[in-house]
Amino acid sequence: MDTKPEVLLFVKAGGDGKRYGACPFCQRLFMMLLAKAHQQQLQFKVATVNFAKPPDAFRKLTLKRVPAIVHGETALDNVDEIIQYLDETFPSPSLDYDDADADKCCRDVFQKFCYYIKDVSKDSSQLEAELAKINDVLASRTSRYLCGDNMTHLDFELLPKLHQIRVAAKALKGFEISPKLRHVWGYLSRAYNDDLFTQACPPDQEIIVHWAEKPETPNLSMEEKARLAREAPKYSFDILISSP
């Protein structure tokens, strides 16, 4: 008899109400649960939440936002609290890291992306500088990921954001991560070949529409949004340069 405790993860729903929406925090926790499920006596399910018509379980537990989890009598919708709870309840594998340089290089890249896509920054130079910092730290490593050969909490936080930068900045601003940043591309390539990333990743269309609907970002026409909604899900997992 299977007695594994089951965790229910609520994530943002995409435009069709079924596929995963473009929330990097939701993908982060999805990836974390996949990692825990590989080694722990852990099962989990993922449910999408459309806030216009949230699932009964989500509504009855008075959860307010996603990502959220339910495990037994515990229901949480704060990312930091969820991470702490999952690490304490399912400690293996450990996803902790102790690397000040790696932590520091990742700190501002998503903020600079937001400034750029919202035209707070008039050009991409600040975003490019942050990507170069990540590239330099990756270049100094021999490991597959930032802090070792397996993903840690830092990778779960950074990789969904890097992917959204890649997809949204190209679609809405014509920006592409420079091929000179070979170590960033190698890092993405390893993620694109890892089930922990690909199983939890939202489609390109959801990422593009998510950012197009933000205040002050380049918007899309209704026709373009309708076209993206009709398309089969697309995932930019291609790598256009050779990895280092």
From TrEMBL:
It comes from the Eukaryota. It is a single-pass membrane protein. Its main location: membrane. The keyword Transmembrane applies. Residues 5-92 form the CLIC N-terminal domain. Gene3D superfamilies: 1.20.1050.10, Glutaredoxin (3.40.30.10). InterPro entries: CLIC_N (IPR053823), Glutathione-S-Trfase_C_sf (IPR036282), Thioredoxin-like_sf (IPR036249). Keywords: Membrane, Transmembrane, Transmembrane helix. One of its GO terms (cellular component) is cytoplasm. It is found in: Membrane. GO terms for molecular function: chloride channel activity. The keyword Membrane applies. Belongs to the chloride channel CLIC family. This is CLIC N-terminal domain-containing protein.
